[in-house]
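Appendix B, example 12.
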Amino acid sequence: MATPPSPEPGPSNWDLISMELSGMMSPSHINLSDMPCIDAIISDAELYGILAQDVDNFLEDLVNENTEDEEAVCAEDQLEQDVENTTDCPPRAPRAPTTDWFNGNPSNMAEIPFTGTPGLLPPHNMSGKTPIDFFFLFFNSRIIDLILNCTNKCGNELKIAARTAQARFTKWKEISLEEFTVFIGIILFMGTVKVNRMAEYWSRHYLMRLSPHSFMARDRFYLILRALNVQDEMRPESIFKVKSLIDMFNETMSTTYYPSNNVAIDESLILWKGRLSFRQYLKGKVHRYGIKLYMLADMNGLVIKIHLYAGSGDQLVGGKNHVKKVVMLLIEKYLNKGHSLYIDNYYSSVGLAEELLDKNTYVTGTLRAKRAGNPTLINIKLNTGESCIVHNSKKIVVTKWQDKREVLLLSSQHKSIYKGTNSRRIRTIKYKPDVLIQYNKYMRAIDRHDQLLSYYSCKHKTLRWYKKVIIHLIQICLVNSFLLYREISKSNIELYDFRKSVLENLLKPPTVPQRSLVERKIHLPSTFTKSGGRTMRKRCRVCYSKTKKRNLVMYGCSDCPEFPGLCLTPCFREYHKY
């Protein structure tokens, strides 16, 4: 048999077969380690297969198997030197280009000047104004008109739908601006004075003598609350029950106030455990279940823009790239102005930071370890106090710092230079990366706003979900006005005193002062008007409040509101405190 030709670069099936056959004829003269791309000696079973009838098929399978093994070996970085020494291996395919990361901080960060003008926008001028003026700056006439029109429309529809003469909404009449102002005052009063049951605010019990009955009857308040509505466009989607109010709030904020340089994006949650298609679950929130609001706030805590998340079917931010859509939706009017945006690890990524940097907007935030585009430093193990810092060609700095647990940080504005900070509990100086210090300083704006809202919550359990959102928006307007009042007036007024001043203007004291018991009018019993030849009867209010029994009487007091039914003795005297 002819001797095999000299090997040439690259695998060759003919050369391999010839060498195998020659090896079977004279195995002592063949060194299998010199054969191209063969890493192991052929076993006895493989030699037996060669001698079998399917010699051609067996050799073809052997060639393919060895070729695959050769490619896998060539792909390993640690065997790179061995592969280079093997002249018969094919050249390795080039890897896909990736973002280059460099150790340490960049020599200098990107410098973007801030071109915005923070504060009130012209023609608004609030110097020397009172708290009630600041409240109506955000809760303005346009929002009030929207609520008034939609509530009156809903009330009239409920009145038409009332089927019996005893139905509550047969007594409905449209509310005026003055009456609506009193209604808002009572709602805010319920946040200051907490009672578990809403009806107790109108209780006649000596332990529950509160002021709402002096401004509005209980049944009238219930009618307005039932008809409370802001849906000006009839659509089947639930989100349209409050969309018009949220859009008007966002428009009011954008035309009234311009945020400061540092802004933050975070989510807030309105408690709701009932059935709702877009109810969300947030593990880190106090309530956990509820209606999610994406919010943009400036460093002072003022909420600038709100988006109510309508679930996966949300037309604006639903679907793929959800978090990126949320960020772009909230920050769209403030791009290319040099703002510094602070976000948590739910939103941040290297790709988002680079995209916003191209639009002259800084990004600083925490980072998730498994987010696409991260550098490989996330796999490095560190000891307590150690850090690993890298940056890319666009000067995006990624830092891994080991505290009690690992902290991943990303910033296009701040370097990871260690600075000393005072501990709140222990009077010692602790050194932290500067990017973490800046993040903790400016990221708390929305949490601070939620904290102020929680002090005097006006919402009750029996409210429908969209009514909770409406009342929540009113409270946001109140907290925004409080924060702006403190900023402009340079006052250290507390939220309680600010709310009290607003309530004093919404619920003004009676024009006629209450008289003493001696000067007070003496009430006398009267019979109810006759209906159909029969004397009308009512239940005794005092007996019902004590025993919950319907003791029907024909006498009452015509001088008292609602003409209450009363027994002549002893309820009449007891009711009037005679």
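The chain is about 35% helix and 15% strand. The first helix runs from residue 13 to 25.
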